[in-house]
Specification:
The protein has about 160 residues and is an all-alpha fold. The protein has seven helices and two strands. The protein has a single domain, classed as VKOR domain (de novo design (two linked rop proteins), Up-down Bundle), CATH 1.20.1440.130. Strands 1-2 form a two-stranded antiparallel sheet. The two termini are about 25 Å apart.
Length: about 160
């Protein structure tokens, strides 16, 4: 398998992971803002130890007055589209933005996991899953960034 094919597979993987993270972000947001008992019990059905309400009502659940899952919904949707665009068209700008966009959520995920573990002392199962997916995307993004930089330096040295 050549390098370009492998890259495209990795970008499609990022796109699929972004879709999953976006769906979970929607679930977290709905659980937070709705008063529907069925929706509010989704978290506790998956794990009796999950403390989604504690995490989502903490002072860290909003940035600039906006609920964190909203950033996830927007960011993961954009990343999914950019990754898919590169996969389908090979657009270099989409590639660059997707690489950057795959690294940033992982950095936030590390911060959110730190907060849940050491500050809030509670875990939201969906948040942990989204954070894990974000870290996986960050690892893929770093790999793609290193490859991209290496490709640029190789093509510059051949000129």
């Amino acid at each position: 398998m050549n390098t370009k094919s492998r890259d495209k597979i990795l970008f499609m993987t990022i796109s699929v992971i972004s879709l999953l993270a976006m769906i979970l972000s929607v679930t977290i947001y709905l659980e937070k803002v709705t008063n529907n008992a069925t929706v509010n019990n989704i978290c506790s059905v998956l794990s009796s130890q999950s403390q989604c309400q504690t995490v989502q009502s903490s002072k860290y659940a909003r940035i600039f007055g906006i609920d964190n899952p909203v950033y996830g919904i927007i960011g993961f949707t954009a990343l999914m589209i950019l990754s898919w665009m590169y996969y389908r068209t090979g657009d270099v700008i989409a590639k660059r933005l997707a690489i950057i966009g795959s690294i940033i959520p992982g950095l936030f995920a590390i911060w959110f996991l730190y907060l849940q573990t050491f500050v809030i002392d509670a875990y939201c199962i969906f948040c942990v899953i989204v954070d894990t997916l974000s870290i996986i995307m960050m690892i893929l993004g770093i790999y793609l960034l290193v490859r991209y930089i290496k490709d640029i330096s190789t093509s510059n040295s051949q000129k």
